[in-house]
């Protein structure tokens, strides 16, 4: 059952890429040529103190059977954290939890006051052009790793953008973290995909403007559209700042307009 679903998903992703090359791609896979291709939102990261408990809650909200763990040791253990990956339509959702005290996730828990949305992970097709735009806008990187497990990693300072925007130039570019083309994932029964997110930050209009220019998105007010997904920048409610909500497309339209909160992240059914 899982194998069949994996094969079907792989066919869907490959066919989507093929349609894009022919100029007739569905929105989820549309691409542009050259260095000005818009960035893509590939996955979201939630940080949790209790990894298993938060995953269990998310499985319940999305009506998703537990994602099988790949064999062998978790590669992220060497970096001080555990992780679980889920595939939601064409988007990856990652839950991370630290395994040592001195880790940036521990600092995040202190600043956030507990669990929360940790990061938006994006794909850049021209890493040098992205870095040049960032430098021109005086945006500093929190850190950069030119070869992180074969990928070029660039993470922007969350103090500017409200949350961590982490970019990769993926090789090959049609696959990304979580290996959605090849790994066996279960599909959620309650939702089709994650189509956007909310990031709380001071002066959301100005941040949306600079994010659109630096990351190559289309600005609409305080929202930025990255092809088939959007990021809404909003003013912080109280002291809450960062990645605060995910927009999930409900399979059962009667659930549209409802929401559920897990790990201080609101899952909004649309």
Task: Explain how this protein is built.
- There is one protein chain.
- With 270 residues, the protein is an alpha/beta fold.
- The chain has two domains: 2-18 and 38-169, 2,3-Dihydroxybiphenyl 1,2-Dioxygenase, domain 1; 191-269, Sandwich (Immunoglobulin-like).
- Helices cover 25% and strands 34% of the residues.
- It has helices spanning 2-21, 51-62, 104-112, 127-136, 158-161, 204-215, and strands spanning 40-47, 81-88, 91-98, 116-123, 141-148, 151-156, 164-169, 191-200, 218-220, 223-226, 229-234, 242-250, 259-262, 265-269.
- It has a seven-stranded mixed β-sheet.
- A hairpin with a 2-residue loop joins strand 10 (223-226) and strand 11 (229-234).
- It is globular and about 45 Å long.
- The chain starts with a helix and ends with a strand.
- Residues 1-34 have low confidence and may be disordered.
Give a quick rundown of the structure:
The chain is 25% helix and 34% strand. The chain is of the alpha/beta class. The longest helix is centred in the first third of the chain and has 20 residues, at 2-21.
Oligomer state of the chains in this structure = single chain
- Got a strand count? 14
**Order of strands in the sheet with the most strands?**
2-3-1-4-7-6-5
Run of helices and strands: HEHEEHEHEEHEEHEEEEEE
The CATH architecture assignment of the largest domain turns out to be Roll
**Which overall shape is indicated by the principal axes computed on the Cα atoms?**
globular
CATH topology of the largest domain: 2,3-Dihydroxybiphenyl 1,2-Dioxygenase, domain 1
Q: Which class of secondary structure composition applies to the elements?
A: alpha/beta
């Amino acid at each position: 059952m899982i194998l069949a679903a994996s094969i079907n998903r792989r066919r869907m992703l490959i066919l989507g890429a093929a349609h894009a090359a022919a100029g007739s791609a569905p929105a989820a896979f549309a691409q542009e040529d050259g260095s000005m291709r818009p960035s893509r939102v590939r996955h979201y990261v939630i940080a949790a103190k209790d990894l298993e408990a938060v995953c269990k809650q998310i499985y319940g909200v999305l009506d998703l059977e537990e994602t099988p763990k790949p064999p062998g040791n978790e590669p992220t253990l060497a970096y001080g954290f555990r992780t679980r990956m889920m595939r939601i339509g064409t988007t990856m959702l990652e839950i991370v939890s630290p395994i040592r005290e001195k880790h940036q996730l521990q600092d995040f828990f202190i600043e956030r006051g507990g669990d929360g949305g940790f990061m938006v992970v994006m794909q850049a097709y021209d890493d040098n052009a992205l870095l040049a735009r960032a430098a021109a806008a005086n945006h500093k990187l929190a850190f950069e790793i030119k070869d992180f497990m074969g990928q070029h990693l660039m993470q922007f300072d969350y103090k500017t953008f409200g949350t961590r925007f982490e970019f990769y130039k993926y090789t090959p570019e049609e696959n990304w973290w979580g290996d959605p083309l090849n790994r066996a994932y279960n599909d959620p029964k309650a939702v089709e995909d994650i189509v956007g997110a909310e990031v709380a930050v001071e002066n959301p209009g100005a941040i949306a403007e600079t994010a659109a220019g630096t990351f190559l998105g289309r600005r609409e007010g305080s929202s930025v559209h990255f092809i088939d997904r959007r990021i809404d920048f909003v003013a912080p409610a109280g002291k809450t700042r960062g990645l605060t909500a995910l927009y999930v497309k409900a399979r059962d339209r009667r659930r549209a307009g409802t929401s559920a909160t897990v790990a201080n992240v609101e899952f909004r059914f649309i």
